[in-house]
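Recall that a protein's primary structure is simply its ordered list of amino acids. Everything else, from secondary elements to tertiary packing, is in principle encoded there. The following example makes that idea concrete.
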Amino acid sequence: MTVPGRRSSTFIRLLRSGFTDPSAAARLLDTDALAAVRNDPVLLDALGATADPDLALLGLVRLAEAQPDGELPGLLDTLVSAKPLRDRLLGVLGASEALGDHLARHPRDWLGLVTYEAADLHPGLAEFEQGLAEAHDPVTLRVAYRRCLLSIAARDVCGTIDVAQTAAELADLATATLRGALRIASAAAPEDAALCRLAVIAMGKCGGNELNYVSDVDVIFVGDSAPGADEGKALQAATRLASHLMRICSETTVEGTIWPVDANLRPEGRNGPLVRTLASHLAYYQRWAKTWEFQALLKARAVAGDEALGAEYIAAISPLVWQAAERENFVPDVQKMRRRVVDNIPAAQVDRELKLGPGGLRDVEFAVQLLQLVHGRSDATLHSGTTLDALHALAAGGYVGRADAAQLHDAYRFLRAMEHRIQLYRLRRTHLVPEDESDLRRLGRSMGLRTEPVAELNKAWRRHASVVRRLHEKLFYRPLLDAVAQLTPGETRLSPRAAGQRLEALGYADPAAALRHLEALASGVTRKAAIQRTLLPVMLGWFADSADPDAGLLNFRKVSDALGKTPWYLRLLRDEGAAAENLARVLSAGRLAPDLLMRAPEAVALLGDPEGLQPRTHEALQQEVLAAVGRAENPEAAVAAARGVRRRELFRTTAADIIGSYGTEDNPAEEDHGALVDRVGGAVSDLTAATVAGALRAAVHSHYGDTLPTRFAVIGVGRFGGHELAYGSDADVLFVHEPREGVDEQEAAKAAQTVIAEMRRLLQLPTTDPPLLIDADLRPEGRSGPLVRTLASYAAYYRRWSLTWESQALLRAEPVAGDAELGARFIELIDPLRYPMEGLGEDAVREIRRLKARMESERMPRGADPTLHTKLGRGGLSDVEWTVQLIQMRHAWVEPGLRTTRTREGLAAAHAAGLIPTEEAQILDEAWVLATRVRNAVMLVRGRAGDTFPTEARELAAVGRYLGYAEGTVGEMLDDYRRITRRARAVVEELFYGG
């Protein structure tokens, strides 16, 4: 029994040696099994040097207690006298609970760590095959596999081999295991083995000689008939052998499992035959294979079975792999593949994902593989399946900057080392960084971080992940700049041909023009060129993520040329995190926003202000416009100032719409599409109202000074009054006036006519600004009626002559400019017309339905597809709006919520009042929002209004990107539009025509 003082001394020593539970450690040291060595200082120091001293000591006790009779002294003597064994054995026990379990079950396997010969330090495939040679069934294969794995782990944790060598040895062990499994399967069915030739092709990390401790082993099987055998029977036999091989490796036995063998990378995946002939493989790859399948074949390596057949397979598919970049669909495939796939990762795990998370292993592997596909067709030095070897070759050939490659190399090795040590602990397939403090401590210590292992590990991990995130995109583009910038002599650069190939692969239709733009922006030694060289690698990536990268780059050059001499422009893009990405999105999304920006490039400053994209209030807009008009020297200058405000605010609105629809790296796309539509409609309507108010003020001031002889108001109708203006909409209005006291009615009418004519003239003056057309055709009597009426004249007309369609048009009437009190009285006048007491009579309802049916048959443009016309087509804007308006005219007299000029508000009010069931209301709302977004998208993309989808491929793709569809899915977009509007039309048939 130890005395208290001695126990205290042992406790302190154990604590200093790194044990987290010194009391438990002291009890373990006191066990009989360790009696001979418990006081040996060398042993205690060695335990303290492991990743987890507590785990190492527990594993050692279990191993000692499991020793057969008479063999324990040999273990303990070797342990204290042979440093190589001590470091290896305790290193494994401190890093891997699973291998500690294996040693406890197979207590003589520690002897495999004793030898320290050259071949033992760096075994190859032959040595692993020898280690598995005596395995004759799945159980003995697992035991032999774990014994070999134990030796790899020992070399790994002791630093005898680095992370790349560890991965290569694990791949060699997997190769030997597949060969052993095929040998066992063949021995179990010799008649099948005699009928066929079977080659096993390793894919993925095994094929690339960079396997993890625990990973699916991806394979493809190639079969053929033995001489004289029937091909059909031979393939059946090969399939049985392949299936048995997979079960031997994958099934759980008393000794656990080895790893799953996954054959899903084969042609047609799970739906395809497990074994094909070489001819069948080639036929599939030549006709049906997708780009990702050629990317996967980069790592194909024949590893087991018939060597000649395996070599034939590799020789046959290799040319197909390196020609993949010339395939017609390579660019859209690459653009889809480049988008990170993190949707399937639970949100709580994204930040702990080493493989798929931002800045993870997949980013490095994908970037390297893509560059290999692009440039490997003309450079055989890039034909490597191993990520780090390929990265080195890319740097040597100038395809990747040397400094970038070195940083990426270090980051990848660190992340792979973390992945290895995480998996080694329990030999489980995981890529998640643990959350538990003790797990993080063991992981950090296993990586050589001993002072503050948890803090140091997290810091190093975040630093390396940040490097990967930063370089992932730049990796593609920085060499393009080096190719044109003509900087340091002697640096290996991309050739013009290689730069063009890369730009083509990333979606640029005119690589030569793109290279000219890059040269203009980034060449030279000026500070401006240096900042551009920092910005462009990332900007090019954002452009490539759009439907028209060429336009994005051209527009960026134009903006940079216009603002290049201003001190704040490049500083804004460099220092304000969101500004550069926002600008890239705006410049590559279509014509409208860039056109607006080119006319006032200084508006780019809005993109760097967190509040810069928020719409301004109607009051603020009107105040600014009227102040600008008041300062002008003449009416032309006044309206030019008003239109300048309109141009800037239209850019603000389009930019916010594009960025909200596309999303950015930090802010995902807006999910509430209705909110986007409402924001655009409200902003454009408010802006139009402020512009009309400014034109009115300028017109009055130029002819009548401060006071017009008649009170005058502008009433917005249609989409203008409904706060639903699209980018390309005209402003539908009514004009009303009322002579001031003592003013002759004829004089007042003439003054009103003069002001209207002047407003129209001013707003239509030739200029670079977008035109604003005022349309008064919805007035009483239409184009045949007077352009402006007094309030009394409106009252008399409506009392005597008003038609149902005119009452319907008034549903969206709202004052937008001029005399507010006169506008309010006009609304009082028309309320009884648009919200008639007791609702509409049956004759009026029939008249509205007849007008709608006539409009559908007569106004649809010739040749237009009625299933895709957003305004007049099936389930489009007109269908939804007329349905809501009919409900308003029938029920608004008793349902105050229906008294609104806005379609979506009216629809929501009808639902709240129980007039439309929930599902039907949602269907109509979805269709109306979608049709509105399509119209907005068409204007943004083409720069001119349109009511149907574009026919030109790039424009159609750009509309799709705005709507949230990935590259290459425009067919899905059109199908979705037809499906949504078809459902809406069914609701319209019931509510509008049937009710």
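Strands lie at 196-202, 217-225, 261-262, 275-276, 301-305, 710-716, 731-739, 774-775, 788-790, 814-818. The radius of gyration is 38 Å.
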